[in-house]
Amino acid sequence: MSPTKSLHAQHHALADSAYQLDVLNPAQTAGAAFPAFASKLREIGLLPLRPTEMTVLQVNVGKMCNQVCKHCHVDAGPDRTEIMTRETMQQCLDALAKTNIEVVDLTGGAPEMNPDFRWFVEGISALGRIAIVRCNLTIIVANKKYYDLPEFFAKHKVRVVSSLPHFAAARTDAQRGDGVFDKSMRALKMLNAVGYGVEGSGLSLDLVYNPSGAFLPGNQVSLEREFKQRLSRDHGVSFNNLLAITNLPVSRFLDYLVESGNYEAYMDKLVQAYNPTAAANVMCRSTISVGWDGLLYDCDFNQMLDLPVARTASQHIRDFDLESLQARAIVVNQHCYGCTAGAGSSCGGATA
Asked: 0.85 exceeded by the pTM?
């Protein structure tokens, strides 16, 4: 069963990022700890890990969400009040205007719940940049004020990326809450109706698959084929691409691993599946992550662990300096094994 409150609202020990890092970095007793992720990068000449070309500004516009998913690394939910202000959004737009960054990846929580969400998307569109929205689908049917989101997205050519854990209702609901699958199908049909996921429309609709348990995702190509067949046959729903993402041991998924006794085995699975090719293509090399309060991070996962960018670089979006960010050393830790296991994992799916 999915949780009903965030770890934050429960005053859970794992709501504290410092405690999460303690779990991920146990005392280095003989044979007890996994090899440091940094040592794996050193072996292939990638330490310190440096940026390539920055192409994505990923912005978390708030932790408020209409769902409480049991795998959520943001620990989002209706009880979270952290929300990005219009002032900080304007600072993001100001930073974009000074760069050639092409894509703005909007995340939450449910980003659409930020009261200035549409204003922000319009500003991104006015700058000629591409907006990606990480939509949980159910938000579209949660309230009448969101019913026109598909039309709004289409007007601004927003790329919609939506999580759907499985094409079977029971498996989706087990991870995200009772009734989520049916609501997701309703939302997908509303998106299809305005052209999303329809061949030749130019409106991109991608789905995100992440495993429901302590295992790695299967082959992305095979999963996409199966999802397309089942969703089309059973629900008359179409989409463009399936992105397979590995669950990282952060926040609620870390809590699940610890509580179920799967933590050691899962970490061992990630370490054993480490792929040097995936390590060279990690998303933090081309992305900067902006927190709801404007602080800068190497990626969304580092953001949730309160691991800011190196102090040699600008620390807040209001002081955005591309040159210093391009020259920084990227901060890594043990959770980074999740992005480099098997075929690799990023916000855009497999990387190797």
From this structure: yes
The 10s digit of each residue's pLDDT in 102-126 is 999 999 999 999 999 999 999 999 9
In Å, how far from its chain's centre is CA 51? Answer: 19
Q: Does pLDDT of 30 surpass 50?
A: no
Cβ contact 212:171 at 8 Å: yes
Distance CA 182, CA 188 (A): 10
The whole-angstrom separation of Cα 133 and Cα 109 is: 11
Question: d(Cα 267, Cα 334) in Å, to the nearest integer?
Answer: 9
pLDDT of 2 reads 63
Closest CA to 187 of 142, 221, 138, 149: 138
Sequence-distant (≥ 6) Cβ neighbours of residue 104 within 8 angstroms: 56, 57, 58, 59, 92, 96, 124, 129, 130, 131, 132
Q: Quote the CA–CA distance of 7 and 146 in Å, as a whole number.
A: 27
CA–CA distance, 78 with 68 (Å, rounded to integer): 8
